[in-house]
C-alpha cells in the first residue's frame, strides 16, 4: 500500500472541509488577493477570514506576504496530488468491493431461481 | 462553476482528515468488519472506534448494521466522486495559475537581460 505523509493529508483534508476555504482556494486560483478583498468577497469579518487563511497556510495550500499594511495571499506549492492519489486508490477499492458484492447477489439470485424451479417440479 | 452539494463535501473532507478513518475506509474496501475487529486492528478502544465510525457514517461513507450484539461496518454508497471532481478542478486552476506566474517571471527575466545588455553597451 502506498504510504502518504499522514499529518499532511490530515491537515489538507481538514483545510478542505469548509466551503469558504474551498472558495478562497478557487478565488486565488484566478488571482492573488489581500485578506481584506477575500473578507469582502465572502462577506466575512477580517478576523474570520484571517483564521481561514491561516488554516490554509498551515496546510501549505496558501502562502501570504505582508507589504506595508496589506497581506497578499496566493496559492501555495501544493497541487493536492497526494490527496487525489488517495481518492483514486479509494475509488478502485470501492469499485472492486461493490463488484464483489454484486457477484454474491447474482449468485444468490441464481441459487434462488434453481431452488425455486426444483420446488415447482 | 460547477456547484457541489456543500454540506456533503464539508462532511466528507472532514471525515477524511483523520488517518484512522482513512485506514478504516481502506480496510472496509477489502472486507466488511465489526466495530470490535476495527478497534483491535487500529489498537483503539471500542468507544474511540465507535466515534470514528459514526463520523464516517454521518458522511455517508460507511453503513452499519447491528445483528445481535455485533455491529458490522461496510462501505457506503459514496465513491467520493464529487470530492475527486473538486480536486481535479482545483488542480486545473492551480496549473493555470502557476503557468501564468511562470510567464511573468520569464518576461521579467527577458526584460532584465535586454536592459542589462543596453547598460553594458
Description:
2 copies of one chain form a homodimer. In chain A, strands 1-3-2 form a 3-stranded antiparallel beta sheet. In chain A, helix 1 packs antiparallel against helix 4 and helix 3 crosses helix 4. Chain A contains 5 helices and 3 strands, in the order ααβααββα. Chain A has 121 residues and is mainly α. At the A-B interface, helix 1, helix 2 and helix 5 of A face helix 1, helix 2 and helix 5 of B.
Task: Detail the topology: elements first, then pairings.
The structure is a homodimer of 121-residue chains.
Chain A: H1 6-16, H2 19-30, E1 33-34, H3 35-41, H4 46-58, E2 62-67, E3 70-75, H5 81-120
Antiparallel strand pairs in A: 1-3, 2-3
Helix pairs in contact in A: 1-4, 3-4
Observed structural traits:
homodimer; 121 residues; mainly alpha; three-stranded antiparallel beta sheet; 5 helices; 3 strands; elongated
> How large is the radius of gyration of chain A?
24 Å
**Could you tell me which chain pair has the largest interface and how many residues each side has?**
A-B, 35 and 35 residues
Q: Please, how many helices of chain A? A: 5
Shape of chain A: elongated
Model regions low in confidence, pLDDT < 50 over at least 5 residues of chain A: none
Class from helix and strand fractions of chain A: mainly alpha
Average pLDDT value of chain A?
Answer: 90
Helix content of chain A: 55-70%
- SSE pattern of chain A: HHEHHEEH
The CA-CA distance between the termini of chain A, in Å, is: 52 Å
Quaternary assembly: homodimer
Strand order of the largest sheet of chain A: 1-3-2
Percent of residues in beta strands of chain A: 5-15%
Q: Report on the biggest sheet of chain A.
A: 3 strands, antiparallel
Number of strands of chain A: 3
